[in-house]
What we know:
Radius of gyration: 25 Å
Number of domains: 3
Shape: globular
Strand content: 5-15%
Amino acid sequence: MLSTPCPAKSAGLFFILFNKGPDITRTDDVFSTMGAFGIPIIPIFLHIMIDDILSLVSRHEEWCGRNCLNLIPSENVMSPAVRILLSSELGHRYTSRYNFYRGTRFLDEIERHGEELAKEVFGAEVADLRPLSGHIADLTFLACFAKPGDVLMCISEEDGGYPGLGEAGLAGLLGLKLVPFPFEKEKMNIKVEKAEETIKHVKPKIVIFGASLILFPHPVKQLANVAVENGAHVGFDGSHVLGLIAGKQFQDPLREGAHALFGSTHKSLFGPQGGIILADKAHGEVVKEKIFPRFVDNAHWNRIAALTLALAEMKRFGRDYAEQVVRNSKALAKALYDHGLPVKCHEIGFTNSHQVILDFGSPERGMEVADKLERADIIVDSVVRIGTCEVTRRGMKTSEMSKIAELIKRVVEGENPETIKCEVHKLCSEFREISNTAFNFGKLIINKLII
């Protein structure tokens, strides 16, 4: 067992290691110096490791949080007030449906407020904020209403569907037979007549609309009735477009015939990373009954508090935000197309969502473009999907989309990324504040939580 070193010896060693670092150039020198002072090795290097971790986080914050154009459509930024709640004391606590844990009176009240806000924002009869991710929300819906051997119909991964629903994901896990929607890639949407025929033929138990690559509303209204008539439960995975749905700028699945709307809370919806389920009364009550303890135990109540505040922001600012997101996407797509880049669906208006898709013909070419852009501190995914959620939240408008398109074009055409990086940093420096937020009362929250 290691003994506690003398404080004076520890102080002396730290002086040598950290104030006379240039004199100690090799690991052996460090070990010999520590041995001379009689200091255990592990605590010193644990201290160094902690410093390294904090340094990495700080460097990421400076790079990605301040100097990068973040254009990944799966990401967004929370307001300062929401971030404060995410780091609040609630993150230490548990609660449960059977009152096993005591001291939860305020947590339970926060959850009730969150559910009421979610129902109001999305027009749902039932809301549940407990899923820890959009994937868990998908799993909950599937497992509540299907059994092994049942048919699941959704958009295939090859057509831009969510990979987590596929054979390697939840369909395989739950033993479901996967039947893809007939899909028209040129229009990035479901073929309605063929889908209707397929539904009548295979009689799926679950039909899920929504996708990872989603430019336009899906034909829920045209297909929900025939799905229900053939025995299906109809869901919409709105992970990417929940913010646009809440802002009344995309489609309204619960009014169009879907029994449930579910997904992630951190893409076009600007909450903390997590999940949500919104449903009609019949399906929502089943979810409420089964979600604990099968799919969620402790639901991370700091996250639920942060999500509740984000929903309040969405209620207040959501329409303006969602309108600007779509305007920005359309402007960015048009500018990229005018620069000669291969923007998907130019014949039908490019996009009605937060996404713009560049089709470079192969995954390898997409990865190459994404890598070049990252060297200029422009962050996209390797598809190449470009999202306007975060830049819109930072206050950028259509004029900035023209500038972003120009920067992307110059990288793709081979200009030195280091040259372009300087212009990226200048643009980012002008848009570091978060718009459409509860920031005006952020100081009040700080005072209540800390002082």
